[in-house]
Amino acid sequence: MSEPDHGTFFSTHRAGDVENLVIPMRNGLCSQKYKPVDYKHLYELAAVEKMASAKIQLKIKKTEQISKINKEQTLLKQHQRVWWQEHKRLSENRQKAEADIRTFLDEESHKHNFFLDMRDLEHKLSKERDTYQKNTVVPLWQLKENLKFRLSEMQCYLSEESCLKSKFNPVEMLQKIELVKKQQKAILEFLILESLALERELEDYNTKAVAHSFEEKNGLFLDVPSALLSLECPYPELKTLVINEYQKLASGYWSKLQEIDHQLKVLSRNIDWKEEDQWVFQTVINQYPSNLRRRRTLYLDVLQRYLPHKSRHDLVVHEKAWDRYHFIRNQRRVLILNWAQARKAFLLKAATTVAEASAAHEAEVVLADTRQKQQELCADLKAKVLQWKAQQEEAAQLQAAVAARRKERKDEEERLQKEREMIRRAQDKEKLKKYWAEKQLKWQEQEEKDLQRLEELRKLMAEQAVKDRERVKFRQALLEKRVLEKKEQALQEAREEEEKEKCLEALRQQVAVVAKLDPARVVADTAASRARVGIGTNKEFDLQKPLFKLHTYSEQQIISDPRLRVELALREAGLHKTLYAKEILPKIPPLKVPRRDMESTAFKM
Q1: At 17, is the secondary structure helix, strand, or coil?
Q2: Is 234 helix (H, G, I), strand (E, B) or coil?
Q3: What pLDDT, on a 0 to 100 scale, did the predictor assign at position 492?
Q4: pLDDT in tens, 224-267
Q5: Can you tell me the distance from the alpha carbon of 300 to that of 285, in angstroms, rounded to the nearest whole number?
Q6: Which three-class secondary structure state does DSSP give residue 536?
Q7: Phi, psi (5° rounding) for residue 84?
Q8: Residue 535 CA to its chain's centroid (Å)
Q9: Rounded alpha-carbon distances, angstroms, from residue 361 to 229, 353, 358, 550
């Protein structure tokens, strides 16, 4: 029962109604203005209201329960969808891993005996798994199917008790179920013990692997790589400097990695959860992809189901710590990747620097050898130059003696040449005077002939000027005559045009149509409509006969023109508007060359 609703018994009144409440007390309880109160009726009304309130509260509770159930079912459906996706992914990964392991064993079994032992162990485990399934799982499924069948028989033959007693014995079936439970319990305990032993063994191996990986990681960071130690550098100081720089870089990354590992240890130390609970938490969160809607609500709901001994506050706190741990792990992974890249880049840069130093050293050695060779060559050249200088001085003395003798001979020849030249010039002067006298005589004769010809030309030009003036006067008179004739012809044409218009107007007046008002003709048949239906026609009409006689080119003649064919081909190809089409179309000759008098000159201006 719900609490009574006292809201109906409280009356609301204002402060001004105090006087009205005081009046009944003055008049007394036996006043005729008030009737006695029927408490029994009031109790009945209160009970009815209580019952209605209880029904309403019951409906609200049912609605809340149904809403809670629907919400639970919706969450379970979403969880089931995620679980099926995770099951599918894990199955695919398992099949892929088994296939990879099988392929690896098949490929390596021919090389090493260890892989043959692994393959035999796989066959042995497969047989044990099949035997376990046959002895444990199959009887359980058979028992389950038998129970389903017996329950269906009990539902069908519920009224036939004797038949049921003879066919089905519940006590014997319960004994079988208890026996199976005990067997399964013993088997599960044995399997749990084996799994715990395997887990301890795997933990030992994991501890050894972690220690080994820590030693490798320590060596990877702090030990100088063999690639740097094996570098052949001609300068020991440079090699020492490169190794020191590598150690500085490695110590910087190693300090950052130790700091991150210290943060991870502190976080792991602050988490007071069991390893099993942490594994459940991490597995459940990894099942739900990051792009899923309402992901946090879903995995928190599942964690509350799997870890009922943990409150929501504990889950949220552990979630924040796990996010922090996961973030630091990602930082550690990124730091290791950065170190690998920096180490690779440093080794490459160191190799490049050493190679450059070796090249520079070789260049210096080559330069020293070259300088020594140059000094030896300079000494040889100096000796040769001194020898050449002596030879040049001796040759210069011989050349000076030869030149002196040649100069004497040349001076003698020049003196003789000057004498011969003076004689030749005197002869040439005499010849030149004679030539200029003859040339002057010829010029005078030619000038007299030119003056005579000029006088004749002047006379001819004067006669031609007279004739030209007469011709100009004649042409001017002829032009005036033609202008007058054209004016007279234009006037004659204007008069003929006026006469023609008058004749045409008179003809129009003669053939003008004067139609009378005839309404019946509007709705009557025309000659064309009567001819179409065959009224008033005697001779047959040739439907194939063309309506008009055409005097033009046929379709075959038009198509046979090569210009049209080329234009259609260009249009089909979509090139009829290109510059190539505009350039080539005017150059195509027609099928029949037109006559010269029919050629158009409109586009040649």
Answers
A1: helix
A2: coil
A3: 93
A4: 777 777 777 777 787 778 778 887 888 888 888 888 888 878 77
A5: 9
A6: coil
A7: -65, -40
A8: 79
A9: 19, 12, 5, 102
Q: Are 328 and 266 in contact (CB under 8 A)?
A: no
Q: Which of 584 and 225 is assigned the larger pLDDT?
A: 584
pLDDT (tens digit, 9 = 90+) per residue, 364-408?
A: 888 888 888 888 888 888 888 888 888 888 888 888 888 888 888
CB-facing half-sphere around the CA of 309: CA atoms within 13 A: 4
SS3 223: coil
Comparing CA positions, the residue from 8, 101, 90 lying closest to residue 49 is 8
Largest CA distance in the chain: 194
d(CA 22, CA 19): 5
**138 token code pair:** 């199959």
Put simply, whether the predicted model's pTM sits higher than 0.85 gets the answer: no
More reliable by pLDDT, 221 or 291:
291
- Lowest mean pLDDT, pick from 55-69, 186-200, 574-588: 186-200
pLDDT, tens only, 116-142: 777 777 788 888 878 877 777 777 787
Residue owning tokens 């550690």 = 332
pLDDT of residue 603: 59
What local confidence, expressed as pLDDT, does residue 2 receive? 42
Backbone angles phi, psi at 246, to 5 degrees: -60, -45
Contact 257, 332 (CB under 8 A): yes
One-letter amino acid for residue 467 of the chain: K
Kindly give, in sequence order, each residue whose CB lies less than 8 Å from that of residue 254, ignoring residues fewer than 6 positions away.
221, 222
Kindly give the interhelix angle for 275-287 and 312-510, rounded to the nearest 10 degrees: 0
DSSP 498-530: HHHHHHHHHHHHHT-------HHHHHSPPHHHH
Task: Calculate the average pLDDT of the chain.
Answer: 78
User: Of 297, 221, 223, whose CA–CA distance to 253 is shortest?
Assistant: 221
Tokens, residue 334 = 């990124």
**Residue 469: half-sphere exposure toward Cβ, Cα within 13 Å:** 5
Lowest mean pLDDT among 151-165, 416-430, 436-450: 151-165
At residue 5, what is the residue type?
D
Q: Write out the DSSP string of 555-600.
A: HHHHHT-HHHHHHHHHHHHT-TTSHHHHHHGGGSPPSSPPPGGG--
- Contact of 100 with 310, CB cutoff 8 Å: no
Higher model confidence: residue 359 or residue 7? 359
Per-residue pLDDT reduced to its tens digit, 441-462: 889 888 888 888 888 888 888 8
Structure tokens at 411: 């001076």
**CA 228 to CA 238: how far, in whole Å?**
12
Query: 43 vs 4, 7, 36, 47, 465, CA distance in Å?
Result: 12, 15, 15, 6, 159
Q: Which residue has the tokens 């080559």?
A: 366
User: Is the Cα dihedral 279, 282, 288, 289 positive or negative?
Assistant: negative
Residue 572 and residue 565: Cα distance in Å, rounded? 11
Joined tokens for residue 471: 């011709």
Q: What is the mean pLDDT of residues 517-543?
A: 71
Residues in Cβ contact with 456 at an 8 Å cutoff, skipping those fewer than 6 apart: none
